[in-house]
Amino acid sequence: MFSPEGPSLRELAVQALSSVERGYDLLAPKFDHTPYRTPDPVLDAVASALAGLGPFDAGLDLCCGTGAGMDVLARVCRGSVTGVDFSAGMLAVARERARPLPGGPAVSWVRADARALPFAPAFDLTVSFGAFGHFLPRELPGLFAQVHSVLRPGGCFAFPVVAPPRPGSPAYWALLGFDAVMRVRNALWRPPFVMYYRTFRLGDVGRELVRAGFRVDLYALPEFGRRSDGSPRVRLVVARKAPPVRAGGPRRARRAGTASPESP
Length: 264
Prior knowledge:
- 33% of the residues lie in helices and 20% in strands.
- By secondary structure, it is of the alpha/beta class.
């Protein structure tokens, strides 16, 4: 699972017995050599889908880690892109590896907790990759409310969701076992390390996004194909903050050639 440049088992054990913040500070120099980094094909597919929904001006990468998602924002945002994370170690690596393109959007980095974002409604697009396992289900309403608060009217909150493994499959049992180990670890050891793979369920997430004031669309990412029942293997969730209502104003038509949401 890990390249020779990745962390050793001892380093992973030390990380797992730390807090989430401290654990990622320790893992940061080798994070990009682990399976935890979002794969490039997923990033490319999301960028392609968002290109059909933009262009956007200002973008925010929520829980940006070492900055892989910032490359997605740089492709679809014209003005500025901001990465926010609570791990100083991850942000240090992100800053070191960032290579802003000439003529591309301005890049900035902010250390902050996603549950208390220090921004005004200044963004047209917020993305997040692989971070939601670090939030307990009861924290999602507050998290989504924070994202809603930093988006301009009509702004989008977008993130990919992989279809869960079939019950009884090897992947299903592996994720179930991992979550069980984490629950035992957190019951016996402090501080807790919140990282669960089976708590972020698409149906629940959709309902919480609507409660937070978003209109939610799902887009199949065709690059990853479909499962045997015809459902997409990977979807892009696009939650849009409602624009202000203008009496008598015409409805904005969808641009020709843009991506279309899945049919119900």
